[in-house]
Design brief:
Blueprint lengths: L7 E4 L9 H16 L3 E6 L9 H14 L5 E5 L4 H13 L3 E4 L3 H13 L28 E4 L6 E6 L3 E6 L7 E3 L7 H11 L4 E5 L6 H10 L6 E5 L2 E2 L15 H6 L4 H9 L13 H7 L10 E2 L2 H14 L2 H14 L10 H8 L6 H8 L10 H7 L5 H11 L6 H15 L3 H13 L7 H7 L2 H9 L3
Parallel strand pairs: 1-2, 2-3, 9-10, 11-12
Antiparallel strand pairs: 4-5, 5-8, 6-7
Helix pairs in contact: 1-9, 5-6, 8-10, 11-12, 11-13, 12-13, 15-16, 15-19, 16-18
Length: 467
């Protein structure tokens, strides 16, 4: 890019279902490219599929982008609100001879295609209503609402240097005359996209490679309108863990489901950034580093495969780095949803600080933190295994010792060591029953750190309950 140029990118989702990680990657890359070049990032909602588009899906798109911090500079623009503009351009193209009315009925098209297939030919419109010098067009049939078709060039080819795929060239004789408006006057997807990209001065189209077959048609329409096509970068497919294309049908989760499952947005952004792009061997990097490093030259050309375990590993990294107060604010509603409301003592930030190194998600963090805010209910078989008659004297002695020590981790640890020495026990023989009686589980971090967060009276009472 030159210093004088202005990058303008866009994310143009269709609101016909939830947005999954494969979809949102097509927002992340154009967002990062615009931010890297101090350009403009635009959100465009392609809602012309009226029967399938929903406001709920729009809301999820907006919420997902907001959660991930993919801020927009312009929009959201809605295609359904731009219908007058599309019709204006269609009329201009009709007037200029760049488009024409076609009265071929659907039944005629079906018959045409069947005959072409029978001859081993590629099914395509044969141009019967395309005006040409010296050509006599058929009589306009009664009762047929004409579609509008674009006069695609007959000769030569359309080519572009794709930032991912390299040089792509398609012969124009492979492309028939595309319908740009249906019989009811509604413009078609490929036409709306072109007008939008033209009006919004899009310089770089970064999108999934499921759109690559549309690109030659869109370039030809852009050129007919006197525009220079943008730079195209078609991103390879994102596959699920089974190697299938990521989709709702194949079990993909909504972006917002990851939030609800306890993932941090910075982990998702970091993970998605590496799902088709790389900067050397860097695996973990901040949003700011990603924007600084991002370019089109290092986009991958092979399909990227989702790895849930790697995402959990990355999320654990960001949880460990996160501020305890921030994590507490995320954990609190999860605990309240479980009916735990007395969350003041111990301070929730202190609790999550104790557990965050071992938590892969915020939900796991909440599950661990819950032991501090509910009455323990250890399983009978666990009690029988660990709280034996042989250890009960040591439990009583430990309770007595804790009644007088300074209430801090180091002093509690020293008290436990003294009791172990006096009773000839090893650490697990005392720590396990203490964990069960106080926290209701045998799985906790260091026992002295755990006990220090409980109230002294609570710990002593629960230990003496074993007598």
């Amino acid at each position: 890019m030159t210093a004088a140029s202005t990058v303008r990118t866009r994310f143009a989702p269709s609101p016909t279902g939830f947005i999954h990680l494969g979809n949102i990657r097509s927002a992340l890359y154009p967002w990062a490219f615009a931010r890297h070049h101090k350009g403009t990032f635009i959100l465009r909602i392609e809602d012309t599929d009226v029967e399938r588009s929903t406001q709920e899906a729009v809301d999820v798109i907006l919420a997902g982008m907001d959660w991930l911090g993919l801020d927009i500079d312009e929009g959201p623009f809605y295609q359904m609100q731009r219908m007058p503009r599309y019709r204006e351009v269609i009329q201009q193209m009709l007037d200029a001879g760049q488009a024409y009315y076609c009265y071929t009925s659907p039944e005629e098209l079906d018959t045409l295609r069947e005959a072409q297939r029978a001859r081993g030919e590629k099914p395509r419109y044969d141009g019967r209503w395309r005006p040409e010098p010296g050509k006599t067009l058929p009589e306009k049939p009664d009762g047929v609402l004409p579609v509008v078709r674009f006069r695609n060039p007959l000769d030569g080819s359309v080519a572009w240097d794709d930032a991912v795929k390299g040089r792509v060239e398609v012969s124009n004789d492979e492309l028939d005359d595309l319908i740009i408006a249906r019989g009811d006057g509604t413009p078609t997807y490929n036409f709306c996209v072109v007008v939008d990209d033209l009006d919004m001065a899009i310089t770089h189209v970064i999108r999934g490679d499921d759109h690559v077959n549309n690109t030659p048609r869109q370039i030809n329409i852009l050129r007919a309108l006197g525009a220079t096509p943008p730079v195209y970068a078609h991103l390879p497919t994102v596959l699920n863990e089974a190697g299938e294309k990521m989709s709702k049908r194949n079990g993909a989760m909504s972006v917002m489901d990851y939030r609800d499952a306890g993932y941090l947005p910075e982990a998702i952004v970091n993970y998605l950034a590496r799902l088709g792009w790389s900067h050397g061997d860097a695996e973990i990097f901040s949003r700011e580093q990603f924007v600084e490093w991002f370019d089109l030259a290092h986009l991958g050309s092979s399909a990227a495969q989702y790895d849930g375990e790697k995402l959990k590993w990355l999320n654990n990294h960001y949880i460990k780095q996160a501020d305890d107060a921030r994590l507490a604010a995320l954990v609190e509603p999860l605990l309240r949803a479980e009916g735990l409301t007395a969350l003041e003592r111990p301070a929730l930030a202190s609790v999550v600080g104790l557990f965050k190194d071992r938590a892969a998600t915020v939900r796991e963090l909440a599950e661990s933190a819950a032991m501090f805010y509910r009455v323990p209910a250890p399983a009978a078989d666990a009690l029988a295994q660990h709280v034996t008659d042989a250890v009960k004297p040591a439990l009583a002695a430990f309770a007595d010792a804790l009644a007088d020590v300074a209430w801090e981790k180091a002093a509690i640890g020293q008290a436990m060591k003294a009791v172990l020495a006096a009773h000839g026990l090893k650490m697990p023989q005392l720590a396990m029953p203490v964990r069960l009686l106080v926290a209701g589980t045998t799985h906790t971090p260091s026992i002295d750190a755990v006990l220090a967060l409980f109230e002294r009276d609570t710990v002593v009472a629960r230990l003496r309950s074993a007598a």
